[in-house]
Structures are given as structure tokens and as C-alpha cells.
# Entry
Amino acid sequence: MKQYLINKNSDELLLFFTGWGCDEYEFEHLDSEFDVLLLFDYSDLNFNFVFSKYKKN
# Structure
């Protein structure tokens, strides 16, 4: 699984699992006050991300 972080230096994280065939470029316009972790390309279901920074997930 691939991942792309939109970092707004927030203590809250929004997880977003994209649809098949989507990547991070389709969400470049996304405007959020939270950090957003985009997950895509499910050919491998393993991913590594440290969630300890966030107070709310």
C-alpha cells in the first residue's frame, strides 16, 4: 500500500482510503485543517506509519 501525507502540523489525523486506480494527485486540491494520510495502490497491504503524534485518529 502506498501512502501520501498532507501535513498541516495538526494533532489530528484524517485517514483516507482512496478508490481503486486513484493516487495522491487526485487530491492535491484537498483543503483541510487536519493532517491527511492518503492510502492507495492496494497491491501490497503493508504500510508503516507512526500514529503516536496524533491525539485524535
